[in-house]
Design a protein that fits this description.
Distance between the termini: 54 Å
Mean pLDDT: 82
InterPro entries: DNA_mismatch_repair_MutS_C (IPR000432), DNA_mismatch_repair_MutS_core (IPR007696), DNA_mismatch_repair_MutS_sf (IPR036187), MutS (IPR045076), MutS2 (IPR005747), P-loop_NTPase (IPR027417), Smr_dom (IPR002625), Smr_dom_sf (IPR036063)
Structural class: alpha/beta
CATH topology of the largest domain: Rossmann fold
Largest sheet: 7 strands, mixed
Strand order of the largest sheet: 1-11-12-13-9-14-15
EC number: 3.1.-.-, 3.6.4.-
Subunit structure: Homodimer. Binds to stalled ribosomes, contacting rRNA.
CATH class of the largest domain: Alpha Beta
Low-confidence stretches: 389-394, 630-638
Family: Belongs to the DNA mismatch repair MutS family. MutS2 subfamily.
CATH architecture of the largest domain: 3-Layer(aba) Sandwich
Strand content: 15-25%
Number of domains: 5
Number of helices: 23
Radius of gyration: 44 Å
Shape: flat
Protein name: Endonuclease MutS2
Length: about 775
């Protein structure tokens, strides 16, 4: 139960219900929202939460639920229950459309059997009677009108009406043309009067045509006359139309009688649609406030992680601002949190967030908090918020507060959540403080849970020395004199009364006078609190700075270790390449000498020919010497990028750039990987690279693609290790042209997931990311889509 009755309203729960109603498709759904109440049964709460969570999953990750045509068929069915009544064409049409929606919804969940068990339970054991729709469709067409062939009698009557209308039209057209030729008619065409087709005749000629005058113009110069011959035919049509209406009513009565035994089933179908509309509205609201399904426990405890007040969140969302999240824990050890701090620092918002989210959970609504939050169940929720003074009841503000405290003391227990805003205010602080302390002591003995906000120092001191009570403060920026809206557990907070007064511009003389009037003890306590908060802020900033420096050092060490590993790995390869290159040079020189000797022998040592051959040999050797002595060209890393082809300056070997690290480049040469200095290579065009080498490298890429695993498991890694692995992993994936990857990081407390996703959002080649399906890992796995 909630006490007092208006506590839910003061916490903002009525506003929440009004927002949910805007998402309903029907008035029935809105009526169900109005009936939302705080529950205490664990199974019921769990069921309603899971229904909303499953519908949220459908809206975000599955095909749309076919729930477009939705009418209030309950009133129609209740009407059909009464003997002698019948449903109209339109009512039967709406029943048919609603039943089609019901069967489509049931088929939707049947196709996904077991995927949404809590939603499937809504229509468990509900029979599917499609014969009802077939019976309706036998007499009602797709536009909601009676079919002309619904019965043989109706077909005959409808045919007779059409024939009589055709004959009447033909006759009146003939008479009208004859009257026109004689100049008896007024300007204009045939017109309808009293549902009859009439000829506009000039008043002076009205006796020249036999017929019935239905009307005359405002001037009296024109009368509207129905000829005798047509009058008789129109009477026949009118009689046939009455007969047709009687036949239609007869068919509707018969159909209503036929469906009357199915009234209980139709009401069940209506109930299913109403519940689906209700759950859908809750799920849409949950998506709008970015709500999640927390861990529901049976104990009277709360642990909110990154919680936000939903109404505050929506207001800030419109203004494109963010809400500072709340982290708070209430359990057996720390039962009551006593929150202190400056005015407008967020104390009341903190307390109201706890109260509102607790009411939402116990009403079956998802809450804007981390999914790892834990929320228990309270049998009672007591709240003292705002000013409840009453002239009629002769209650002052303080009397109203005391009346509530009396009720709290009498009825609170260990299953009660107590929320008190500005505890003890409304009277002389000398008496209000001690009374508040006594009330808090009594409630603590009853093991209640709750959040209390206060400015009273005696309550802060009492909480500090009493088991079960825990001080907390709203942090404040001393330098900028601005609240940070962050709850810090473990110590009380200063009210910053003098600091805020000074910022507003209160004169120094007044401030000094006020300080003299404050007791020395109180002044020392307040100064100590301010100093503690400042020291804590400096400590946090120092810790962040040290962590950043440590991260930078780790990155540099990692780069050095990587480079060292590459060098060690390729040391033997470099020596081997040098030996092969030297052997190639010697082999080419020997071949040149052998060819020269052979040609000298063939020319039989002809003097002139021998001299020419020797000159050619010397020129070739000199060319080689010049190439050996050439200074190597310096190649800066800016000129090269991944994927470029390069050639060694001192040989004809060609490789492709894999990575560039400072003044070193890592090359791919077939199956080999080599680390060389940038000044030993030069960039070459793709066209100058032989086809067989490009083909070989392409084959290597194909092999890399076939061996590359599109699933990366980072569970158990630290943040910096995980990011390093992801960086290498993404680079290879982009090089291989993959479109998507799967990264397994686990759920845990969400720190690794958040760190990884923040990095992925900054990676330029990432298109978007999303969770794995809930049944296959949920947000413990991230799908990465590459551009």
């Amino acid at each position: 139960m909630i006490y007092p009755d208006n506590a839910g309203e003061k916490l903002g729960f009525l506003d929440i219900k009004e927002l949910i109603k805007t998402y309903c498709l029907s008035t029935m759904g809105q009526q169900m929202v109005d009936k939302i109440q705080v529950m205490t049964n664990f199974d019921y709460i769990n069921k309603f939460l899971r229904q909303t969570y499953e519908f949220k999953n459908i809206l975000q990750n599955d095909s749309p639920l076919p729930i477009q045509n939705f009418f209030d068929i309950k009133s129609m069915v209740e009407k059909a229950r009464i003997e002698g009544t019948y449903l109209t064409e339109d009512e039967f049409f709406k029943v048919s459309l609603s039943l089609s929606t019901v069967f489509s919804v049931i088929q939707y969940f049947t196709d996904r059997e077991g995927q949404y068990p809590n939603l499937e339970a809504l229509f468990e054991h509900l029979p599917i009677e499609k014969s009802i729709i077939r019976k309706i469709e036998m007499i009602i067409d797709p536009k909601g009108k009676i079919k002309n062939n619904a019965s043989s009698e109706l077909m005959t009557i409808t045919s007779g009406i059409a024939k009589a209308e055709q004959e009447a039209r033909k006759k009146i057209d003939q008479i009208f043309k004859n009257a026109q030729s004689n100049g008896w008619t007024a300007d204009g065409n045939l017109t309808i009067r009293d549902g009859r087709l009439c000829i506009p005749v000039l008043s002076e000629n009205k006796r020249k045509l036999k017929g019935f005058i239905h009307d005359e113009s405002a001037s009296g110069q024109t009368v509207f006359l129905e000829p005798d011959e047509v009058f008789h035919l129109n009477n026949i049509i009118r009689d046939l139309e009455f007969e047709r209406r009687r036949e239609i009513i007869k068919l509707l009565v018969a159909l209503t009688d036929e469906l009357r035994p199915s009234v209980p089933l139709l009401l069940s179908y209506h109930g299913l649609l109403t519940k689906l509309d209700f759950v859908r509205a809750k799920a849409l609201f949950a998506i709008n406030i970015e709500a999640e399904m927390p861990v529901l426990i049976k104990e009277a405890e709360i642990e909110l992680i990154n919680a936000r007040h939903p109404l505050l969140f929506l207001n800030f969302k419109k203004e494109q601002q963010t809400v500072v999240p709340l982290n708070i824990k209430i359990d057996e050890e720390e039962r009551v949190i006593v929150v202190s701090g400056p005015n407008a620092g967020g104390k009341s918002v903190c307390m109201k967030t706890v109260g509102l989210l607790q009411i939402m959970i116990q009403s079956g609504l998802l809450i804007p908090a981390d999914e790892h939050s834990k929320v228990g169940i309270f049998k009672q929720i007591f709240a003292d918020i705002g000013d409840d003074q009453s002239i009629e009841s002769d209650l002052s503000t303080y009397s109203a507060h005391l009346s509530k405290m009396k009720y709290f003391i009498e009825f609170a227990n260990s299953k009660t959540l107590v929320l008190i805003d500005e505890f003890g205010t409304g009277t002389d602080p000398q008496f209000g403080g001690p009374i508040a302390e006594a009330v808090l002591e009594n409630l603590n003995k009853k093991n209640v849970r709750g959040v209390v906000t206060t400015h009273y120092s005696n309550l802060k001191t009492f909480a500090n020395s009493t088991p079960g009570l825990e001080n907390a403060s709203m942090l404040f920026n001393n330098e900028k004199m601005q609240p940070l809206y962050i709850l810090s557990l473990g110590k009380p907070g200063s009210s910053y009364a003098f600091e805020i007064a000074q910022k507003i511009g209160l004169s120094a003389e007044v401030l000094e006078s006020a300080k003299r009037k404050v007791g020395n003890y109180q002044k020392k306590v307040d100064t100590l609190l301010v100093d503690l908060e400042r020291d804590k802020k400096e400590l946090i900033e120092a810790r962040i700075s040290v962590e950043k420096k440590e991260q930078k050092v780790k990155t540099l060490l990692s780069e050095n270790e990587q480079l060292k590993a590459y060098l060690e790995e390729n040391k033997k390869l470099i020596l081997k390449n040098a030996k092969i290159e030297a052997q190639s040079i010697i082999k080419n020189a020997n071949k040149l000498i052998e060819n020269t000797i052979s040609e000298i022998k063939e020319s039989k040592a002809d003097k002139v020919q021998t001299q020419n051959l020797r000159q050619n040999l010397e020129q070739e050797l000199k060319k080689h010497e010049v190439q050996e002595k050439k200074a190597p060209k310096i190649q800066h890393s800016e000129e090269l990028k991944k994927g470029d082809w390069v050639k060694f300056l001192d040989s004809e070997n060609i490789g492709q750039v894999m990575e560039i690290a400072r003044d070193n480049v890592i090359l791919a040469m077939g199956d080999l990987r080599s680390v060389v200095k940038l000044n030993r290579v030069e960039k070459v065009s793709n066209k100058s690279v032989p086809k067989e080498i490009r083909k070989s490298h392409s084959t290597d890429l194909t092999e890399s693609f076939s061996t590359f695993n599109t699933e990366l498991d980072l569970r158990g890694m630290r943040g910096d290790e995980a990011l390093y692995e992801i960086e290498k992993y993404l680079d290879r994936a982009v090089m291989l042209g993959l479109s998507g990857l799967k990264i397994i990081h686990g759920k845990g407390d969400g720190i690794l997931r958040k760190l990884i996703r923040e990095y992925l959002r900054k990676y330029p080649q990432v298109s978007h990311i999303e969770d794995e399906h809930a049944d296959r890992g949920g947000d413990g796995i991230t799908f990465v889509y590459l551009k």
